[in-house]
Amino acid sequence: MTYYEIIGGILITIGSIFLFLGGLGIYRMPDIFNRLQAGTKATTLGAMSLILGVGIMEGTWEWILKSFVIIVYIAFSNPISSHALARATYLRGHRPYIKSEDKEKMDAYREVVENDPKRKEVEV
Amino acid sequence: MKKVLVILLLAVVGFYLADVFIGIGFGNDHFVKSDEIKPVKDIYLQQTVENLKVSNAVTSIVVNFRGFDTLGEVTVLFLSVTALGSILYRKRHHAGDRSVLFSASSIVTAGSKLLFPPILLLGAYVFIHGHLSPGGGFQGGVIIATGFLLMLLAYENYTVSHNALSIVESFAGITFAVIGLMGFMNGGTFLQNFLPVGTLNDLFSGGIIPIIYIAVGFKVAAELTGVIYTVLNEKGDQKNG
Hints:
Chain A has helices spanning about 5-30, 30-60, 60-90, 105-115. Chain A is mostly helical and about 120 residues long.
């Protein structure tokens, strides 16, 4: 085991944990906006860490450079795509789910949502 | 009476189908059990590495061993695209023709401008390295078409020139056919290799395989971009949700 392999293995493990948490978030979260946030943030970091781990594990500069190129691409593409999805969903009239007993907790958010004529009361 | 006839016919057809399938011997490692004749897969793998110097066996089979079939596939794609265009194409495209519910936000427009060149580069990389790594002309062409799809989604007024697309497509198709015909000039058959094969794992290796795959990549990219553009510009029935 070289140092490269140990560092790469640690990074790959971190990445897999984040990817797993992202998948769990998509399964557990109540509505599309929460699912998007779980799916985007966790998988962006997870994929970056995993790809960097693979690049370091190989141990040559070409591989590390290649993995950095892929990381930059993911850093641009993943947030942009989920932003477009969330914006399109909001503009089409889908609103975040709010539990009826939790209304007091959503301070500034509530003002936006409650004045919205398209808002639907959803019991979760 | 009719049912009896149908059952009889089905029984006859089924008997001969079963007869044929029993003779094939699925799961056996060697179809031909003889010392002189090698099984087909061994011949393909050996020829790929030793004679053609191509490290991606799938590419060598698709473009070299059954290159004529690939020419047919490209023709089928061309015909289906032409049929789609003849159904959906309208002569005049105006700027506001596309049925857009909401225009894309500035994040998406700026981001697509940034991401468009790397997507084209990745597509070109995939079809240029088709004989070295997984991928090839069809896959690279589809990647390039997705780049144009991104631009068309981000910018409502983005236009693709139909003339440029048809010129690229025709030129790529003619390149494929001419390379195939040039096999005759060297005393061979259609699509026979006439270029030096080089060394294994080099970018310039494999004879005519990279050239054909580059032509296929351009052709598929132009055709699919045309399909996307035609379908997007077709006025949808549902306006404003």
